Amino acid sequence: MFVCHNDGVTSGPAARTRPDLEPLPENPPVSYVMPVLNEAAHLAEAVRAVLSQDYPGEQELLLALGASSDGTDTVAAELAAADPRVRLVANPRNDIPIGLNLAIRASRFPVVVRVDAHAELPAGYTAAAVEILRRTGAANVGGVMEAKGRGRFQRAVARGYNSPFGLGGGSWHHGEDEIDSDSAYLGVFRREVLEEVGYYDETLRRAEDWELNHRIRAAGHRVLFTPKLRVTYWPRDNWDALRRQMYATGVWRGHLVRRHASTPWRYLPPPAVALLVAISVLVGLLQAVGVARGPGWAFAHVPALGYLAGVTAVGVTRLGGSGAVDRLLNVVVLATMHLGWGAGFIKGWLTGATTTVDRSRVV
């Protein structure tokens, strides 16, 4: 049976009595873990943001190095040679959950901070996260993914990420209150909880954060969102990379929905739109070859045309930008997010996702 439900976290796994965690000491040692693949252009900046955290406790940074082809390993080796807090772990299979688990198991400290090589931690991030863990007794705390862009296309993608019309209304994109959440962006974890639930699921290639947080909540622990933590995220900077990312992410989300036989309602509009657009395209082809005749077939195009009009209106009037080109890019980005993710979701829901890999970072 397939079940839809809302996004609240007051029922289901989170409603169980929470087990007590030992109080954290003041300024406990912290281990940062970062999976890395083809990030030569961003790695030094991401590592610098970690190592410059104004945090009085002991710190270490574990880089899980995939099989990069852009000189990332050289950059990583230089960073490790320059600072003894940086240690390198090989991740020849490339998958993010495997790299994260390798880094976590090689790390030593009671607080584990997930870091993305394509993101930058702001000053004070670690101190604020640890204070929230200590104050709330949460097992994991995360904040806002604040997308930014350098080039014109990347800035349009960032506007899509930061808008509820792009990736939806998840708290880690737009939340303004400290609340319990079904997942968290990146995450600052209590190590003992990661050990308790068995770390990241290494059979997944995307959506590993949501799945891990689902098990943390099922074990009775608290996952917390707070707007006090804001992380700069640099999204894909070209259309093909965005398309690949959205499709792979949608496939793995559909795979998880297939596994759990339930889904929040907010995941359903993109696959519905993708299906309606596909029907319109198919009917158009049948009309072009003379198979679909008669005025009644025109109704098959109404939903797709309505979506096109709506996404154009939103992209032009609601996302911003500095001119006509920016607003046109807004429309392209939104449509790519919706249709790519939605088509991927349908594929993952129907057939699973074991062979789907996100190649949007491969060079």
Q: Would you write up a description of this structure?
A:
The protein folds into 2 domains: 233 residues, Alpha-Beta Complex (Spore Coat Polysaccharide Biosynthesis Protein SpsA, Chain A); 96 residues, no CATH class. It is built from 12 helices and 11 strands. The relative contact order is 0.14. With 363 residues, it is of the alpha/beta class. It is globular and about 75 Å long. About 2% of the residues have low confidence.
CATH superfamily of the largest domain: Spore Coat Polysaccharide Biosynthesis Protein SpsA, Chain A
CATH architecture of the largest domain: Alpha-Beta Complex
CATH overall fold name of the largest domain: Spore Coat Polysaccharide Biosynthesis Protein SpsA, Chain A
Quaternary structure: single chain
Shape, principal axes of CA atoms: globular
Low-confidence stretches: 7-15
SSE arrangement, N to C:
EEHEHEHEEHEHHEEHHEHEHHH
Mean pLDDT: 90
Please report which band the strand proportion falls in: under 5%, 5-15%, 15-25%, 25-35%, 35-45% or over 45%. Answer: 15-25%
Q: What is the domain tally?
A: 2
Number of helices: 12
Instruction: Please bin the fraction of helical residues.
Output: 40-55%
What is the total tally of β strands? 11
Largest β sheet strand count, sense and barrel closure: 9 strands, mixed
Q: What gyration radius follows from the Cα positions, in whole Å?
A: 21 Å
Q: Can you identify the CATH class of the largest domain?
A: Alpha Beta
